[in-house]
Amino acid sequence: MTRIRPFRPGDEPALVEICLKTADAGADATGILDDDDLWAEIFVLPYAARHPEFAFVVEADDGRVVGYIVGAPDSAAFEEWFATEWWPRRADRWPRPPGEESSADSRQDGILRYAHARAGGAQPFGDDYPAHLHIDLLPETQGQGLGRRLIETLEDALRAAHVPGLHLVASADNTGAIAFYPRVGFEALASPEGTQVFAKRL
Predict the structure, then answer these.
(1) CA proximity to 87, closest of 107, 132, 117
(2) Cβ neighbours of residue 123 under 8 Å, at least 6 residues apart?
(3) DSSP string, 128-192
(4) 38 Cβ partners below 8 Å, 6+ apart?
(5) What is the pLDDT of residues 111-147, one digit of tens each?
(6) Which is nearest to 5 in space by CA: 132, 200, 177, 146?
(7) End-to-end Cα, the chain, rounded Å
(8) Cα 173 from Cα 66, distance rounded (Å)
(9) CB 131 within 8 A of CB 167
(10) Helix (H) and strand (E) counts for the chain?
């Protein structure tokens, strides 16, 4: 029977695959970047490394990991760690693109600029909703209530840690996500162009 369980060491290759297969606004991002590994090194692996206690996976009947949710309880502290410890160990492989941001940037350039610019300190939405999450499910698992169950599992863990609020940022192109989050109690907030921010008090 499909079940949700805590992340454990050894799940990382499955997290990498799921992240890649869902990274293009919920669709398969294989081949979109020059290096497929980049997605997971920014959007899932650092969370599992820093906060395994806020990482949960969906395990299918055959033992495969087919979905996950990861969270950071304090976005400012997480971004500081990402900027000073996680990303410097990867910057030689993925250096910051030269020059200023421009319309000529590739999609990989844009993602790398984002990674290199992450920093600690005050975070958007961080005062009221200090935690943030990333969640991904392979298409075969969607529509079964697993997304709701993953979010409830993470929320329970955050409440137990006395975290007062939670937010996430979705691509404006990800229509499925934008329809989903209000159904599980998230409120849409004013958002930067191309994105939609959702938040929830815990």
Answers:
(1) 117
(2) 75, 76, 79, 130
(3) T--EEEEEEE-GGGTTSSHHHHHHHHHHHHHHHTT--EEEEEEETT-HHHHHHHHHTT-EEE---
(4) 94, 108, 111, 112
(5) 999 999 998 877 778 889 999 999 999 988 888 899 9
(6) 146
(7) 29
(8) 23
(9) yes
(10) 7, 7
Token output for 136: 């991904």
Grouping H, G, I as helix, E, B as strand and the rest as coil, residue 10 is coil
Q: In whole angstroms, what is the distance from residue 186 CA to residue 197 CA?
A: 9
Q: Per the structure block, which two tokens stand in for 64?
A: 């495969």
pTM score, whole prediction: 0.94
Query: Would you report the helix, strand and coil content of the chain in percent, each value rounded to 5?
Result: 40, 20, 40
Length of the chain: 202
Extract the tokens encoding 106: 């590739």
Handedness of CA 90, 196, 130, 183 (dihedral sign): negative
Each residue's pLDDT tens digit, 62-117: 999 999 999 999 999 999 999 999 999 999 999 999 877 777 789 999 999 999 99
Torsion on CA atoms 21, 27, 28, 33, rounded to nearest 10: -110
Amino acid identity for residue 60 in this structure: A
What is the spatial distance between Cα 153 and Cα 183, in angstroms, rounded to a whole number?
Answer: 16
Pairing of β 165-171 and β 195-201: antiparallel
Q: Which residue has the tokens 């298409």?
A: 139
